[in-house]
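Weekly structure sync, notes
Attendees: PL (lead), two postdocs, one rotation student
Agenda item 3: pending single-chain targets
PL asked that the sequence for the first pending target be pasted directly into the notes so everyone works from the same version. It is reproduced below exactly as submitted, 308 residues in total.
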Amino acid sequence: MVPTLRVATRKSPLALWQAEHVASLLRQAHPGLVVELVPMSTKGDRIQDRSLAAIGGKGLFIKDLEVALDERRADIAVHSMKDVPGDLPDGLMIGAVLRRADPRDALISAGFQQLEELPRGARVGTSSLRRQAQLLAARPDLRIEALRGNVDTRLRRLEAGELDAIVLACAGLIRLGLESRITTRLDMKISLPAVGQGIIGIECRSDDAQTRAALQVLNHAATRTAMDAERAFSRRLGGSCQSPIAAYAQLEPGGLRLEGLVAEPDGSRLLRDTISGAANNAMALGEQLAERVSTAGGGALLERLRGG
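Predicted structure, written out during the meeting:
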């Protein structure tokens, strides 16, 4: 057993909570193991005045952590899997994922209980093209405004009256003890989640056998299966963390059900499809669904958005 594990993490309150949660689980599973946090400021954290799409997407939140793994300044990195690009750098892998928390999107508003209750032209904050597209599909009249920063920063903009509502992930709010701030959980028919939303993943070096072995006790198999299907769907479509792509997979009696979506950012077109099959075929199911959505027009849509 490795005597010490160093955990690379962002410095945001949510990232630190997730890293400390993983550290606590590792200490419980391996008595005597020393687990140390290595907090870092990433490029995605440092640049707050531009949209994520403009500066390279959510992958910027994890790149510096991966460099720390490569340079052996850390042994593992803890991520929200919705921030992790489909293709990992050579030599790195997701060693374990925790049981998925609530994967849905949360609508938070001071004066309105449901999306349909928002007044015409209401200002809704989100920096996610996926959320923007689905919100506008349901309510084309909404004014979508860019929303960056940590959870507290985003909530303060709402409280200051700058916005009528904001949309955040339920899982992050719950982890920070802010579940009571959720006005309503958006039905997946209205807002299909981001790939990997609600899942905490632990990245490590592929050649670090001791660390990989230490992580195995934390791995939640059903969550891993669902995540593999969703990530295969996005990867086959060539999606990045800023693409208007959504997917949600769930184990059901008899197999795995995966729903996927590609959308126009303005909400004028949603390409949505579902596939079911054997759970041990999760990645292939994701790829098959991606092919169907791509053929239906999703491939051309994404190529145009990439400027191809």
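Discussion points:
- The first helix runs from residue 13 to 29.
- The mean pLDDT is 93.
Action: rotation student to compare against the earlier draft before next sync.
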